[in-house]
Amino acid sequence: MAQQLTVPRSEGELRRLLDKMYSTSKEKIKVNERPSFKSLLEIIKCEEVIVSAIHKMKSNKGSKTPGENGKTINDILQMEYSEVIKMIEDKLSCYKAGKIRRVFISKLGKKEKRPLGIPNIEDRIIQECIRMVIEPILEAQFFEHSYGFRPMRSSAHALERVSHIAKWVNIHWVIEGDISKFFDKVNHRKLLKILWSMGLRDRRLLMIIKEMLKAGIINEAEINDMGTPQGAILSPLLANAYLTKFDEFITEFYEKKKMKVVGNKHRYDALKRKNFKQIFLVRYADDWVVFTNTKVNAEKVKYRIQSFFKDRLCLDLSIEKTKITNMRKQPIRFVGFEIKCWRGKGKTGYVVRSKPDIKRIRPKIRKILDEIRKINTYPSNDEKLIQIHNINSMIRGLIEYYKYSTRVNIVFNKFSKMIGCSAFNSLKRWRKTQWIRACESSNLQLIHSEYTEKLASIIIRGEIIAITNINMVRWTKISQKNQEETPYSYEGRLKYLNRMKRKPLKERAMELNKRLNSNITLKCINGTQKDRFNNFEYHMNRPYAFNRDKGNCRICGVSLNIAETKIRHITKRLPVNEVNKVKNLMTVCKKCYKAINSKKQLEGDSKINKKILKYRELMSK
């Protein structure tokens, strides 16, 4: 029986609806039933989902990359609010995908390039709307040890799971798997059948997804008969759905084998007593490893996997990259790490050590060195400082990714002198350079304050600006993924926020927009000219400005309800793409709003009057 769903009217209702879809899907799977959801398109088309999708996209750098029609997210933000909502609704009602613009990016350490497909910005917004609604349904059914392109999961969790199996389960024969050109060979018909079986029973939605998959590629094909374009927002989720059949195939051998016992611990004990083959899967997108207890079993499982991919999913394993490895003799390479079992103390007599994969590190180090040499190509001091900031971001990005490997310091120390000398030589051509202790620098103080290593630095505007180094890293232990962490339940969100030491986000006050929309509609009927700043971005950011000000008037401090609230610009002397940012909006009460707009002289010298005069002055600039 299909689930009855109601269209959400606020962010809170949307969150509760997604939670309900997740829990329903989870409950059905537990009793060996498949969920069934209809009327999904009505939810995807609703105003709250569209606003949420655009808000999420605008913070993504890729949203500023144009598609075939040359439009970016800025073009959407500067349109009228009602115009954007109607455009997306109409496009979903009779969907026709625009052609995809192909871009090729270099692969690390390889001559061949990776093809990326960039849809039009309108298609990307629609894909994000679809992703938001269908993700909780699919997420509830994904394999618990699949870590790629999923919320609240990372490559560090995949690394920890591999280390746990090698050390505590004490099996070390590994099939390192790689699917040849996976994203280019996904079979559309099989993918749609899988989505139907996983509970997406809205045929209109499946036809939209089919249209997206078949979108033509500029200068290559009018219709794309196979594959999902890398770079499309929906592709990672669809890829995980497609490979769910592979997860089910492998886990039925051992991890999810049906037994008349309660709990994983008792089931594993029963499986051992009956001498079943031990088989464990860890997957990160299309990169995966399968553990088993003997070489003979590994060869048999590899053959069966190869047959499964070819017969059931129309995919081929890469012969070069798919191999059988004994972790006690050779390291395996997984998600950018080298992982190997070494003799040591412990129950099994072995410990697991990991380190960054040198083959993947070297091209990134070369890229950093190239960026360091480019510092002097920029004409102004400000541009050079921005380049230093970008270099530091690249170095810190490497550190943050690889800090979970146990031998990260040993590998990174090999490159620290190279980066330090290159930084010193590049900076000294610009101005006087000196070596200073990291803790004495003015930038990256939260990190540099803990180190005394020497860094190449310059003094500019009275501040010591240093180029950080890659050896400022400490191994960070990460626990195994808590499977109860999920963005689709209150308890799951709370566990994640506690682990990450973050605060929960406030819900958008969408009632502000509903009242504003009625006022704008009235102005249109009366023929009054619209304010040129009342674009989509203004409407979208009003609730966030209200939340930032905690629902209080910024001038008099009084707590406001929606009817008393005015959201106004601090200054209108900014370009149209800057004037509606949250930082340029403020919450005020009606009385203070009138006082700012009035030219009447204020009596007295109170704090409120000083603030009113301040904002009057800002408005006049």
UniProtKB/TrEMBL annotation:
<dbReference type="Pfam" id="PF00078">
    <property type="entry name" value="RVT_1"/>
</dbReference>
<keyword id="KW-0548">Nucleotidyltransferase</keyword>
<feature type="domain" description="Reverse transcriptase">
    <location>
        <begin position="1"/>
        <end position="339"/>
    </location>
</feature>
<dbReference type="InterPro" id="IPR051083">
    <property type="entry name" value="GrpII_Intron_Splice-Mob/Def"/>
</dbReference>
<dbReference type="GO" id="GO:0003964">
    <property type="term" value="F:RNA-directed DNA polymerase activity"/>
</dbReference>
<keyword id="KW-0695">RNA-directed DNA polymerase</keyword>
<protein>
    <submittedName>
        <fullName>Group II intron reverse transcriptase/maturase</fullName>
    </submittedName>
</protein>
<dbReference type="InterPro" id="IPR043502">
    <property type="entry name" value="DNA/RNA_pol_sf"/>
</dbReference>
<dbReference type="InterPro" id="IPR000477">
    <property type="entry name" value="RT_dom"/>
</dbReference>
<keyword id="KW-0808">Transferase</keyword>
